[in-house]
Amino acid sequence: MCLLLLCVFLSCLPFYLSAQTDRQNEKPIIGVLAQDVYLPQPSQTAYIAASYVKFLESAGARVVPVMILYPGGGVSIVSSGYERAAKIFYELAIEANKRGDYFPVWGTCLGFEQLMYLTSKNTILAYTNTSGAALPLNFTNAEDSRMFKGFPAQLMKDLASEPLTVNSHKWSLGMLTYNTNEELKKFYKVLSVNTDGNVEFVSTVEAYDYPIYGTQWHPEKNAFEWTRPSIPHSPSAVKTTFYMAEFFVNEARKNFHKFETEEGESKALIYNYNPVYTGTKSAFEQIYFF
Ligand SMILES: *[C@@H]1O[C@H](CO)[C@@H](O)[C@H](O)[C@H]1NC(C)=O
Ligand SMILES: *[C@@H]1O[C@H](CO)[C@@H](O)[C@H](O)[C@H]1NC(C)=O
């Protein structure tokens, strides 16, 4: 249950394209996929942890919650509503990008695992002892990555030497699996790896030919979540949250989809909902329920 509650998948929404590649969209809106609530109650069937929303807002984006339209028992990456919704966005993004319509997608934790599954069409995860582990990143190809190119040199040094990235998962994509899976190898460049002392696993990726990104760790937690002692809050840890958010929001600024009407936009924004303080009983300080 922990794994499932700690993760989300983000993507830009395919509303309308006005192809302008030399400009920036200074009003990016990013869709965040809601997840099924483990024990649903009336008016609480899906949720988004507020830290994902704050993460994006802190770098200048607005958020629209994306509801899962299919009832699904539990969140599985193989057969849940989350999986179906993620698959729809993943395929829309691939198609859009092939047409030259820049359509970024981000997966965190479960979202990362979901992306790996969608690319390889295979359940390929290995058990790791990583529920509640802050780790330094073991960078592999970061110097020529899009993701880390704009990071300050000192922050890159800190990321490589201090435990600034918090892991809240029990299942991981082993390097061994990545190295022996042609689909994954062709599609994703591995930017960092980590180990639980036993299994080496992929911790950060970017797609070679698409603006598709994934982290097995949680960049949003350092600045916004306080419920677990493993979450780092040092100045470098908080900068990590911000530079990751800034990177992805800048990617979203290259996308010009928009709502057809202002009314449609204002009705869809997450501002229509209020987060609830849940820090005393959940891993998240605040949660949006739908
Ligand atoms: C899992 O990792 C923690 C440290 O993060 C360690 O204390 C614990 O002994 C490990 N458990 C196993 C079964 O290896
Ligand atoms: C970092 O990853 C490389 C490549 O897998 C590995 O050879 C090396 O031992 C790792 N370094 C650390 C400090 O874990």
From TrEMBL:
<keyword id="KW-0964">Secreted</keyword>
<feature type="active site" description="Proton donor">
    <location>
        <position position="218"/>
    </location>
</feature>
<dbReference type="InterPro" id="IPR029062">
    <property type="entry name" value="Class_I_gatase-like"/>
</dbReference>
<feature type="signal peptide">
    <location>
        <begin position="1"/>
        <end position="19"/>
    </location>
</feature>
<dbReference type="GO" id="GO:0046900">
    <property type="term" value="P:tetrahydrofolylpolyglutamate metabolic process"/>
</dbReference>
<feature type="active site">
    <location>
        <position position="218"/>
    </location>
</feature>
<keyword id="KW-0732">Signal</keyword>
<dbReference type="Pfam" id="PF07722">
    <property type="entry name" value="Peptidase_C26"/>
</dbReference>
<dbReference type="InterPro" id="IPR011697">
    <property type="entry name" value="Peptidase_C26"/>
</dbReference>
<keyword id="KW-0378">Hydrolase</keyword>
<dbReference type="GO" id="GO:0005576">
    <property type="term" value="C:extracellular region"/>
</dbReference>
<protein>
    <recommendedName>
        <fullName>folate gamma-glutamyl hydrolase</fullName>
        <ecNumber>3.4.19.9</ecNumber>
    </recommendedName>
</protein>
<dbReference type="InterPro" id="IPR015527">
    <property type="entry name" value="Pept_C26_g-glut_hydrolase"/>
</dbReference>
<dbReference type="GO" id="GO:0005773">
    <property type="term" value="C:vacuole"/>
</dbReference>
<feature type="active site" description="Nucleophile">
    <location>
        <position position="109"/>
    </location>
</feature>
<comment type="similarity">
    <text>Belongs to the peptidase C26 family.</text>
</comment>
<dbReference type="GO" id="GO:0034722">
    <property type="term" value="F:gamma-glutamyl-peptidase activity"/>
</dbReference>
